[in-house]
Amino acid sequence: MGMKSDIKLIDDNGLRIDGRLPNQLRPIKMEVGVVKRADGSAFIEWGGNKIIAAVYGPREAYPKHVQESDRAIVRARYNMAAFSVDERKRPGPDRRSVELSKVISEALTSAIFVEKFPRTAIDVYIEVLQADAGTRVAGITVASLALADAGIPMRDLVVGCAAGKVDGVVVLDLNKEEDNFGEADVPMAIMPRTGDIALLQMDGDLTYEELTNAMEMAMDAAKEIYQLEIKTLKGKYGGDNNDD
Amino acid sequence: MEEEKKVRDVVVPGEEIVVDGKPGRGVFIENGVMHSMYLGIVDVRSGYVNVIPLSGCYIPKRGDKVIGKIVDLAPMNWVVDINAPYYAPLHVNDVPWRVEFGDTGRFLGLGDVILAKVSNVNEMGQVWITLKEQGLRKLEGGHLIHISPSKVPRVIGKGGSMIQMLKDSTNCRIYVGQNGTIWISGTPDGIVKVIKAIRMIEREAHTYGLTDRVKEFLERGDE
Predict the structure, then answer these.
(1) pTM passes above 0.95
(2) Hey, is the C-beta of A118 within 8 angstroms of any chain B C-beta?
């Protein structure tokens, strides 16, 4: 965001740099049950993003002072691998990943029946193996799959989806170039059944109309991703799963 | 059972359940409509619609018989891991022996396995277990395996049919804890066979006609 360049992100036919239409998602592939030792896990490939999520718990929360006597706490940790980006990322938590961990925890908390497990913690580990813009929304999506796989009671699956503005056009699901050289990015987390919004951030400037437009676009796309999530979860328990 | 491997209805969290009946376990109501809480299977039993989760941890209920492992000793109690979100203390008053203060280690040591009963659970999730009842005891030797607690009823079968079949065909002693921990004792061959059968039950817990397939597996022998 913010960087000026003379790259043309939208061509004369209205197509984007990777040939997508403004309201078209990147290809998404999901899988559940990829980490055997975890209580629940999932993997997602979203365009160039490759993210793995593992869920542990609910288990007794330690240190004891973080426990809540009437509900569970959700501790998500968003972490980018050193090799996930072009230039080596210094490993460990930084300002950005601490913030993302916090907002992802809060987005997931709103979907989970936390009051069913007092004094416990539900740990969600989100590891970004390869990043290509939109990792926080892909992380939320894959984390909600892992939570469902772990048998944690939830109101709905959470779907993350981003929209933004590139070369003056409101577009869905920005890729790396669009994110770097575009004008705005609006990541959202949505519970598609009710249309509740679990996360809404905005980086860059949008007018009211543009923001509404972007949110509607993300909302529609979320329903599409939601169907994919359901298909993935049900697919695990489909007819022929003896090859375990 | 008409079909060889018919799969039960799988629902995902938040999915609407359009089945007649009263809301039971694993469902919540929003705007007068039932929704599933879990990734699980829909089960209608005596007028109640339940969703049985396909995975997840054990939620202790009073009266459940569980198999636990001693993880810590204290002067007046043992701390037992029963595979629940919380550890369960076993107080010296809840065992059939007379234990002097600070002498807990003489009766049950770290890593010992016990068959216990959940005597109380409170709303904060605290759990108390007891050994003071007939049939509850320390389990010596044997082999432990874990399965998802939601699949315990399938391993036991209707009226204990499945577990009886496993016992009869392998001559093993088997205890199934409601918390998904299973204790098996017998010949090495028998134990291996039981474990294979239980893994098969676990894998196909959501299908119909499971007892027949397990029976076939046990008769066919090793593979």
Answers:
(1) no
(2) yes
